[in-house]
Specification:
binds nicotinamide-adenine-dinucleotide, four-stranded mixed sheet, Rna Polymerase Sigma Factor, Chain: A, single chain, binds magnesium ion, 2 domains, 11 strands, Rossmann fold, about 375 residues
Length: about 375
């Protein structure tokens, strides 16, 4: 019997994690489940999985949560402090699957407990960078990457030593607009952006995937998880999403991880690590797929990856500023306030206008994040 808490349980990664647990109910004790609001959905999950605690980030949703959990004995709580408390309860594994920098505080609380954290919340690592990796080191925590590319790299690194790595290649699907012209991109709608050809994901990461910002954030994420040097990290577009990433060693042996494009594969790899578990999916049929293709990214139509590379090269507060500006821009795009191609422009403008000293603590990161959001918000007002 193993215990688990899921931060962001009502989201795409959270639900897929619970789907795996549902199939192995006898092996898992669910401690805490959290959401931003969605009180009814969270309560239904907490009841089904017999969780001890359910937490909503938004305090105005606590009444509804309490009502939905009445008579169950499941504790209910709300607010950021409650999310952090939930994350710091002792469990065998915490799945950090809140979207955006909003997940940073709770993810750090799980790390500070020194536990095993399955990290999906890439924005938290991008924003906090060394502040998070230093905390992992200091508290003896274990980070297991949920993101499919990083999970693939993590698996490929079992085949050699990190000192012997010549190159790490992150694969990118290219998103729903891979073959679109600049003119088409200018007219892209939120509905088109969230319809990803290979993966079924939350709205924010789907838009990031369409702008290629997701791959840029993943480049920064990979730099922190696998410190081989930026010159050894590259991105390649692979539209079939079958090869999830690759590690080339100095003898030119390249190890790749392949699998169905279903997040339950990397999630299961974290849940069972260092063992393996069954995942109820059709196995990969390479003969049916027939062809795997690879092409260099087009940074002219999709400038987000170069913005991310420049931000991590600059270091300090730049990645946190980039991430915050992107979150504001994506929300504005989803809300119909700005066009699709304005997203990377807003990120670049925020990075040009706002500089801050390198964050040393979690509080510093959160300060940079909120200041960068305010600056990006001003760009919206003047639009
Ligand atoms: P989602 O939007 O489907 O779910 C997000 C979850 O976070 C929900 O439970 C929501 O209630 C919660 N949440 C949102 N804002 C919050 C706030 N302010 N406070 C507390 N909780 C809040 O997102 P997702 O697609 O599941 O992605 C989650 C994370 O995993 C993201 O960082 C994403 O980049 C990463 N990721 C997702 C996938 C995928 O396939 N969905 C793949 C790789 C990585
Ligand atoms: Mg990914």
């Amino acid at each position: 019997m193993r215990s688990i808490s899921i931060l962001g349980a009502t989201g795409s990664v959270g639900e897929q994690t619970l789907d795996l647990i549902r199939r192995n109910r006898a092996n898992w004790q669910v401690e805490a489940l959290t959401a931003n609001c969605s009180a009814q959905k969270l309560a239904a999950m907490a009841r089904e999985f017999d969780a001890r605690l359910a937490v909503v980030g938004d305090e105005s949703c606590l009444g509804e949560l309490r009502e939905a959990l009445a008579g169950t004995g499941i504790e209910a709580a709300a607010g950021l402090a409650a999310l952090r408390d939930a994350a710091s309860r002792p469990v065998d594994i915490t799945v950090a699957a809140i979207v955006g920098c909003a997940g940073l505080g709770p993810t750090m609380a799980a790390i500070e407990r020194g536990g095993t954290v399955a990290l999906a919340n890439k924005e938290a690592l991008v924003s906090a960078g060394e502040v998070m990796t230093a905390a992992v080191e200091r508290h003896g925590a274990t980070l297991l990457p949920v993101d499919s590319e990083h999970n693939a790299i993590f698996q490929c690194l079992q085949g050699g030593k990190i000192e012997d790595v010549a190159r790490i290649t992150l694969t990118a699907s290219g998103g729903p607009f891979r073959t679109w012209s600049q003119e088409q991109l200018e007219a892209a709608t939120p509905a088109q952006a969230v319809a990803h050809p290979n993966w079924d994901m939350g709205a924010k990461i789907s838009v990031d995937s369409a702008t290629m910002m997701n791959k840029g954030l993943e480049y920064i994420e990979a730099h922190h998880l696998f410190p081989v040097g930026l010159e050894r990290l590259r991105i390649i577009v692979h539209p079939q999403s079958v090869v999830h990433s690759m590690v080339e060693y100095r003898d030119h042996s390249t190890l790749a991880q392949l699998g169905p494009s279903d997040m339950r594969v990397p999630i299961a790899s974290c849940l069972a690590w260092p063992d393996r578990m069954d995942v109820p999916l059709q196995p990969l049929d390479l003969a049916e797929i027939g062809e795997l293709t690879f092409v260099a990214p087009d940074e002219h139509r999709f400038p987000a990856t170069s913005l991310c590379r420049e931000a991590i090269e600059a270091g300090g507060a730049a990645p946190a500023i980039l991430n915050a500006a992107n979150e504001v821009a994506v929300a504005a795009f989803l809300d119909g306030q700005i066009g699709f191609t304005r997203i990377p422009v807003m990120v670049e403008q925020t990075l040009t206008r706002y500089k801050a000293p390198a964050p040393q603590t979690l509080e510093d990161v959160l300060t940079v994040d909120s200041e960068a959001r305010a600056r990006a918000g001003e760009l919206l007002e003047t639009a």
